[in-house]
Write a structure and sequence with these properties.
It is a single chain. The protein is α+β, with helices and mostly antiparallel strands and 610 residues long. The chain contains eleven helices and 35 strands. It folds into two domains: 259 residues, Neuraminidase (6 Propeller); 264 residues, Alpha/Beta hydrolase fold, catalytic domain (Rossmann fold, 3-Layer(aba) Sandwich), CATH 3.40.50.1820. Helix 3 links the parallel strand 30 and strand 31. The chain starts with 10 loop residues before the first helix and ends with a helix.
Amino acid sequence: MNAATIKTIPLKNFFRNPEKTRYTLSPNGEYLAYLAPYKNRMNIHVQKIGSDEILRLTNVEDRDLAGYFWATNERILYARDFGGDENFHVFGVDVAGGNDKDLTPFDGVLAQIIDHLEDDDEHIIVGLNKRNKQIFDPYRLNINTGELHMIAENPGNITSWMTDHDGKLRVAASTDGVNTSILYRPTENDEFKVVLTTNFRDTLAPLFFTFDNQHIYATSNLNRDKSAIVKFDIANGKEIEVLYENEDVDVSNLSYSRKRKVLTLISYVDWKRQYKFLDKEREDLQNNLENKIGKQYEVVVGSSSKAEDKFLVRTYSDRSLGAYFFYDKNTDKLEKITDVSPWLDENELAEMKAITYTSRDGLKIDGYLTLPKDIPHKNLPVVVNPHGGPWARDSWTFNPEVQFLANRGYAILQMNFRGSTGYGRKFWEASFNQWGLKMQDDISDGVDWLVNQGIADANRIAIYGGSYGGYATLAGITFTPELYACAVDYVGVSNLFTFMGTIPPYWKPYLEMLKEMVGDPEDPVDHERLKATSPVFHVDKIKAPLLIAQGAKDPRVVQAESDQMVEALRNRGIDVEYILKENEGHGFHNEENRFEFYAAMESFLAKHLK
């Protein structure tokens, strides 16, 4: 391979914070808010459309803000945690500056947004696990003073709450660990009553109420393999209409116009995002924007003014983080606000292509292959990159890790192994109790497929992943040591016993379900399987050099997962590099830590694959 033919792009260009990102539009359509660095941390800024004057609203220096939204034209709410502990607090700050206040100032308490209450300028509804760390009670929260009023008490098994279009709390979901129930009440003065109970394998996920607040729209896989969008009689617990289903993939997203009170579109992902339009006005808007911007980009309509005449538009592709645009429907004028990463030239980046192969037991596995640009695609060094979750999926989009690795001359293989979401119930259930077994076989089969295509050099294959992908990385070098020359584990699980025993308290309602999906440490048969598939107990099989990265505050994959692996390997004299960050949680969010990790990965892969 002649990597010298590839123009090397500086590492920091892939992983630096954008100069301006996560734009949103004020309800009156007159102001933009966005995140931009202040002392290397992403903070909120606002700007009147048409003006060059910028006001920074927050001054957080220790950690990027997690997210924000316009509560009113005068006030913005934002979320932040502390050191990566994922106990997010809700803060509020005035758009004019000032009154920056922690509205949920409770140590060790996680705040979840239940309803923005768009028609109430003083309150939102939040869920807090203040009374009991395992469950969330809904509160009406004053966004100026922080005054809280509990509006329902969680009896101990409710996992989510839903309001109607008037902001009334009328639907909830509960679990006993393996069975899920939908609860309903006609008014807030009534008691919640169970209207439907299903096993967790069956999904009826409420999306929002019909515009008369009588029925709901939901995602449902009841009596079908692939989830569909349905209209559901919530009072009587029965499906009354199928709006859309797809024979190949799950469908789960439904959008509507709040102003016009019409359903607008359904979106779903096969190899990339697709739309099924329900409203001509919304379809015309999409076609108009795509014609103006270009069909090679994914064009996403983001926030809009309350009048739905001004819109923020975001573009993406596999080779670009895209740009933000402001569109005024009244004048049909589209203006570019900014490119998200203008320092990256998409013409120098690699194309992400959809691929398919068949697992050894006959399952169709979809995935993505990114090959380095401008060099022959034969006998390449490869980074196999299984996704986290594991009940998630990879998609066609810009991925800075993938583009960075391709720019360094590696082919990158991503696969939606069994259990990946979006492919129906059977495909998901095929992953149950298969950590380190058939799920791992799907990854190994992808490696074999790539070697048989002549693309991969069988002696220069690495595996890298985060979270579940980190587990798959460790399992790969433990149970198929012949496949991999080296490995990078990023906040990955090494011991399935300690993983099951250290989940966050608010995951406890799902513990019985997790036992069915991963395994029950108390069951003798499961116990043996969990031991057999926990890499930490089989380090004697590992031959490949290993780089491990871990956040000390990670609440999901705790530091001990990496510590015990490092100790076991070093005791055997295996080459293992360890990056531990005290100020990080589940993944490195601070820019300087990202730079350090990817620089270490770059030299590690160069040492062992080239």
